[in-house]
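[User] Once you have settled down, look closely at the record that follows, and write a paragraph about the fold.
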Amino acid sequence: MVGAGADVEDSAVEAALRPKSLAEFVGQPTVREQLDLVLTAARQRGATADHVLLSGAPGLGKTTLSMIIAAEMGAPIRITSGPAIQHAGDLAAILSSLQEGEVLFLDEIHRMSRPAEEMLYMAMEDFRVDVVVGKGPGATAIPLELPPFTLVGATTRAGLLPPPLRDRFGFTAHMEFYEPAELERVVHRSARLLEVEADAPGAAEIASRSRGTPRIANRLLRRVRDYAQVKADGFVTREIARQALAVYEVDERGLDRLDRSVLQALLKLFGGGPVGLSTLAVAVGEERETVEEVAEPFLVREGLLARTPRGRVATPAAWEHLGLTPPRSGAPSTTPPGQRGLFEG
């Protein structure tokens, strides 16, 4: 059992670590420069900023940028998500209560229902929605004028957005994974805010295991802080960071328990593959979606796993990383006969 207090505390810490302006925001130099031009021009015209679409993997700063947009424009922000808007009436209620210039942040916008999505088209373009009253032949559409507002949409799967919705955004940006040097700056900044003493090698060790993601860097920093506080003198060095991350099962390439379980099952049980996704998920005791959406993207990006038409296959780097010897070419496969070449997505 996990108490709700821990989640509340983590959320509060993450909120405190968020940059408050574009000048404080670390990384994403192209996005920052482009967004700064968009916002500065809007302020000079005294107009509402164009609608903004942010795409990219979780933890790269999409929510933070939405808050920065509101702060830079001196406007309030309303935060909701696509899964929370399942009916057009839900969206109409939110839109009708917006103030002029307000920023509406819609997270996971690709998961919004189709009726609400179609209502959003008119709201973004004409600042108007038609509210249908009644049913059947007696139904009446009442036009409702909206004040100018800025919609900031965030998505981890931009390809699922329909073109009519995507084309209505005046500015679109794709968030890239961070370089180690950028993550070191993130760790140093967060350490100052958390009042954690860390030297440069210690910060570099945390950054190198953060999978190119600031959210993970901040989470690992908090766990290393705990270890340093309890097991050492509170000062984070490279050795202390290594010991702490070993306790929390994060290896030198950033792989966690789930990542290594997937690789070990693929190598030891199935001889490196190919093996189907569902079979691999059963072998590690996880849901298929968990393996596909949580573990696989990082393993593929690190060059440790490949997706092929026949199934998942380990690369030579995977064997090397786990210290295992790949089977000789032409040697009999250790994959059970009924599972060879399974293609399950």
